[in-house]
Every structure is written in structure tokens, then in C-alpha cells.
Design brief:
The complex is a heterodimer of chains A (about 290) and B (about 270).
Chain A lengths: L7 H12 L15 E5 L7 E7 L2 E12 L10 E8 L13 H14 L12 E3 L3 E13 L4 H15 L1 E3 L1 E5 L5 E5 L6 E3 L7 E8 L2 E4 L3 H6 L2 E7 L5 E7 L6 H32 L11
Parallel strand pairs in A: 4-6
Antiparallel strand pairs in A: 1-2, 2-3, 3-6, 5-6, 7-10, 8-9, 11-12, 11-13, 13-14
Helix pairs in contact in A: 3-5
Chain B lengths: L47 E5 L7 E7 L2 E12 L12 E8 L14 H14 L11 E11 L4 H15 L9 E8 L2 E4 L3 H5 L8 E9 L4 E10 L2 H33 L7
Parallel strand pairs in B: 4-5
Antiparallel strand pairs in B: 1-2, 2-3, 3-5, 6-7, 6-8, 8-9
The chains are: A alpha+beta (about 290), B alpha+beta (about 270).
Chain lengths: ~290, ~270
């Protein structure tokens, strides 16, 4: 993990600030940093989104490919996650340095989406036991400034919202052979229902309180954090304790409650924003990576 | 490349035939007693068998058996750290490695560590680290290796218990033992310490389904590891965590006794005569 060195005096300063609900950058304990979302940033993907959260920048590209359904669930497609921690973000990730973090992030994403309601996997099926859509969700970390989980989950939700899967028609010839035909019309595509896609909220325990959206400095002051993925309805799809410390049961309950509250509040503005951007259509001014 | 035309070539990749069985009893009954006679909706953990010190080469080792879940753990160290580039040399490092034997699950797995194993290793490390006095072992590393011999559910929970026992057996200074317990929520009812079938069963499209694993430090009353997946409401999760803690407390005397008997065997009390 990208880390920063924070001296003891600085730690005390951050700790005392958080105790009084005032963080170094002026936020309260449950406030996010300024967030920017842009969808449809990479033309070669079926859906993409870029999210910047403070100085954390994440780019997600989704590619849909036709694959074979898993034998256990022949009538469902599936999602594949891969998180790439490139050396761009911090030199620590050079070579195999980022592999561990990338693995940790991607396995957590599998857990977050390991339920029946997040994405309607049945809609990804083309023909049962033969063909299905496989969505490759590739996450690229462009900059690291803490709170990777939240930024990634928001970017994935935005990218899934943006994903356009081409419609296919199956024609059966006389011998019973099946042929898949792609529609010629580029606008004839299937959209995914993202209402139940969860967002991750990371809560860092700093002193006796917990903060949402911790910067690297704040993260250096905390021993353990709890990541909670919450859907729009407030169901929790994944909880995980990360970091080398332990937590009191009572504080875990407090943090889950706070995480649920913050997570639930995150969804409505996000969807509204995405729909607003979508409605602009071609008129939308592209910001790109330098904005 | 010359090919053998006399024989039929098998496919390059193969899958276990069990995947293709039409499986009628995939859904476990969600009411009534469980397949192994334990009670639903109660903190009814499987009886466990634990022993320390079976591997003579290791500094500490432990074996745990809960129903058909069998795993062993070896602890090595503290020894000089291999990675010298680490900036933080004031603290020791805990290295964990968890592996499934290829024959441990119904389907054969390869010897190469997959992502699941690596994820479990990471969970194990995060669960054990808070309990170990790593500051007492500067510039050194402690290694914990877990081998799952037979997987019949709740592997991570038992691996945590087993690993902490092996560390204690190795004489590593610790704040507390770490106990693991897992549960599976299935609609309104739950099962504690689920078996492999209970773990992987998914009954219909019901809400409130998921697995939860908790690592708990009993005498400090701290949770060192928490992991859940599936879908749960906040209230379910909270009661689930409480249930798992209760399960850990049930485990505690057994583990203590196993540890005490090992110590007694290693250094028998002086006979008063």
C-alpha cells in the first residue's frame, strides 16, 4: 500500500482534530472529499469511467466478451475483476510491488459482487450452458491518495451504468447449429440495471472515532479500518477488516451503522449525476484526463 | 509436432464430472435440525479436537479437527528477515501462508496457490497480527503455514484458531489467543460453524444470505478479523457478529486446555515427594 511517513507530532495533531470532528483539510468525520466522475472516457471499451477523489484517480474500463457459462450456473454470465496497480501511481508499485495490493482489491471486489442482486447475471446469458457475456472489469489506479476502495467502487458503478452490451440474435439453421449474430445498429444495445450495485465505504478508526474517506496521512494514524459495501437499500454485501490492528465489537457495530448511513446517502446523488451526464448526450463537453 | 493418431486425445482442460450432475439436494432444508444433528439458530459449534506439537522440526505446531474439517499449522521463527528493504525494522514481520491440499475439496485443486488461498492467507495475517507482540521481535520474521487437509466448511475460522495455537506453542509472545468462528445466515435462520454443503448451498432468491467469519481475542474482547459476503441487513450482521463471538467463547476452554496440557507435557510439574 502506498504509505506516507507521518511524525508523532503530526499524528497527535490529526488525532486531536478528529476528536473534535475537524479534519486537517477542514472536513467533518463523515464527509467525502471533492469527487469528479466522468463516464465514457475510453472509446475502445464497452463502458468506462474515471473517478477522482481528492488526489486519488481511478480509471475503470469494462469489456464484454462472449464466453462459456460456468457449469455450476449455466444460465448466468459472470464478471471478472482485475485491479492493476501501475508504477504510475507510486514508485512502490514498480515490478511486482503492486501485485499484493491489486490482488487484495480484486478479491474484495469479487466478494462485494458475490450475491444475486448486485448485477442481474441472468441478463448476461445468451444461450444457457453455451454462451454468455463475460464482463471484464479492469481497474487502473492512476494516482493514490488514500481511500482506494471507495473510489474504485464508485468508478465501477459508473462504468457499469455506462456499459452498453451489443444485442445478439441467435439463429438456428436446419442442422440445429446455432449462430450468433451481432446487431448492425450501434445503438441497439443492452444496458445494465445498476440500482443494486453496491458502493464501498471505508471507515478508518482514528483514536476513538472513525473517519470516512481518509487521506494517506489520516490512514497512517489509524491501526485498522473497516470496509463496508452498501447497496441503495442499505443491505450490506461485504464487510472486511483491513489493517494490522484490532477493533472493539462495539466500535464495529458503530462503524457498520455509520457506514450504512454514509453509503446509502452516496447512491442517490451518484445515480442522479450519472443520469444527468447521460442526458447531455453528444453535447457533453469531455473533460478527459487533464481536467 | 507428430501426433499420436492411434489414440484419442483428451481435452486440454478437464473439469470434475460432479459439476455436471443434476443435483437435486443442492438446497439444504432451511428448517429442522441440520444434516449432522446440530441445532439451527443456536451457537452449536462442532466438537473439536486439538493437539499441539506434532511436527518436530517446527518451532510450534498444531492440529485441529472439527467434524471433517482437518487442518494443521506450523509456526517457524523468529528468524532473520529475508526482505531487507523493509523500512520498518523496529517491528517483526508476520508471514502467513495458507494452502489447500489438492484433495482437500470435492474438486481437485492444483498445488499452485490460487487467488483464494492468497486471499485467505491475507485474512489470516490480518487476524493474527494484532495478537502478536511484533515489537518484541525487531528485524525478524515469524512464519505461519497452514495446510488444509480436508475442507468441510469454516476453514478460515479454524485456520485462525489453529494458527494462534501453533504460535503459542512456538513460544511467540502474544497478547491473547485468537479464536475464529463463522456462521451462515440463510433467510431468517442461521447456522454456526457451517459445513461445506451448508456453506455453498444457496437456497432460492431469498434476501439476507451470507457468510460471516470473525476472529476474536477473548480476553481482550477485541475483534481482530472480520469478513462477510452475501447480502445482509445491518441488524443481521450485528447479531451475526455477536453470535460468532459467543461461538468463540465456547471454543476458548478447549483451546486453553490443549495448550495447558502441551505445556504440562513439555515441562512436567516437579513431583512432590
Amino acid at each position: 500500500m502506498a504509505t506516507v511517513q507521518v511524525c508523532e507530532a503530526e499524528k497527535v495533531y490529526i488525532l486531536h482534530g478528529i476528536r473534535d470532528d475537524l479534519r486537517v483539510d477542514g472536513r467533518g468525520c463523515e464527509d467525502y472529499r471533492h469527487m469528479e466522475i466522468e463516464t465514457d472516457v475510453v472509446s475502445n471499451t464497452d463502458g468506462s469511467a474515471k473517478v477522482t477523489l481528492g488526489h486519488t484517480a481511478v480509471l475503470v474500463g469494462i469489456k464484454a466478451e462472449i464466453g462459456k457459462p460456468r457449469p455450476m450456473v449455466p444460465d448466468e454470465g459472470y464478471l471478472e475483476f482485475f485491479v492493476d496497480c501501475s508504477a504510475n501511481a507510486t514508485p512502490e508499485f514498480e515490478g511486482r510491488g503492486g501485485e499484493e495490493l491489486g490482488m487484495e482489491l480484486s478479491t474484495t471486489l469479487y466478494k462485494v459482487f458475490n450475491n444475486k442482486h448486485s448485477v442481474d447475471l441472468k441478463s448476461l446469458c445468451i444461450t444457457a450452458a453455451e454462451h454468455c457475456w463475460v464482463l471484464y472489469v479492469d481497474v487502473l489506479l492512476l494516482q493514490c491518495d488514500g481511500n482506494l476502495y471507495d473510489a474504485i467502487s464508485i468508478a465501477i458503478k459508473a462504468a457499469l451504468f455506462n456499459t452498453k452490451i451489443p444485442r445478439v440474435h441467435i439463429s438456428v439453421d436446419e442442422e440445429g447449429g446455432k449462430e450468433i449474430e451481432l446487431s448492425d445498429d450501434p445503438y441497439d444495445c443492452m444496458r445494465l440495471d445498476v440500482t443494486n450495485v453496491p458502493c464501498i465505504v471505508t471507515l478508518c478508526k482514528v483514536g476513538h472515532r472513525h473517519v470516512v474517506d481518509a487521506t494517506l496521512q489520516e490512514k497512517a494514524c489509524s491501526v485498522a479500518s473497516l470496509i463496508i459495501s452498501v447497496t441503495q437499500k442499505g443491505t450490506i454485501t461485504c464487510v472486511r477488516k483491513v489493517g494490522g490492528g484490532s477493533l472493539d465489537p462495539e466500535s464495529i457495530f458503530e462503524m457498520t451503522e455509520a457506514g450504512k448511513r454514509v453509503g446509502k446517502a452516496l447512491h442517490a446523488p451518484l445515480i442522479k449525476l450519472l443520469q444527468q451526464e447521460e442526458s447531455l448526450g453528444k453535447k457533453r463537453q469531455k473533460v478527459g484526463f487533464l481536467g | 509436432m507428430p501426433t499420436d493418431t492411434k489414440r484419442l486425445r483428451g481435452p486440454d482442460v478437464s473439469k470434475s464430472p460432479s459439476l455436471y450432475f443434476s443435483k437435486p439436494p443442492a438446497t439444504v432444508a432451511s428448517h429442522g435440525p441440520r444434516a449432522d444433528g446440530r441445532q439451527r439458530d443456536q451457537v452449536d459449534i462442532r466438537p473439536i479436537f486439538v493437539r499441539c506439537g506434532l511436527v518436530s522440526q517446527a518451532k510450534g505446531s498444531a492440529y485441529i479437527e472439527a467434524g471433517n474439517t482437518k487442518l494443521m499449522c506450523c509456526a517457524y521463527g523468529p528468524r532473520e528477515t529475508e526482505r531487507k528493504d523493509e523500512t520498518d525494522m523496529k517491528c517483526g514481520r508476520l508471514i502467513t501462508d495458507m494452502r489447500f491440499a489438492p484433495f482437500s475439496c470435492p474438486e481437485r485443486t492444483s498445488w499452485i496457490q490460487g487467488t483464494q488461498d492468497r486471499d485467505l492467507s491475507l485474512m489470516l495475517q490480518e487476524s493474527l497480527q494484532p495478537a502478536i507482540c511484533l515489537h518484541k521481535y525487531p528485524r525478524s520474521q515469524i512464519e505461519v503455514n497452514v495446510m488444509v487437509l480436508e475442507n468441510n466448511g469454516s476453514v478460515l475460522a479454524h485456520a485462525i484458531t489453529c494458527a494462534s495455537l501453533a504460535l503459542a506453542d512456538a513460544g511467540i509472545e502474544m497478547y491473547d489467543l485468537v479464536l475464529g468462528c463463522s456462521m451462515r445466515q440463510d433467510g431468517a435462520s442461521y447456522v454456526v460453524d457451517p459445513s461445506y454443503i451448508e456453506e455453498s448451498s444457496c437456497s432460492s432468491d431469498r434476501e439476507n444470505q451470507g457468510c460471516l467469519t470473525v476472529a476474536f481475542l477473548p480476553s481482550l474482547n477485541q475483534i481482530s478479523g472480520l469478513q462477510s459476503d452475501g447480502e445482509m441487513t445491518e441488524a443481521t450482521l450485528t447479531t451475526g457478529v455477536r453470535t460468532c463471538i459467543e461461538g468463540c467463547y465456547k471454543l476458548y476452554p478447549v483451546i486453553q486446555q490443549a495448550l495447558a496440557s502441551t505445556v504440562r507435557k513439555a515441562a512436567p510439574p516437579p513431583s512432590e515427594s
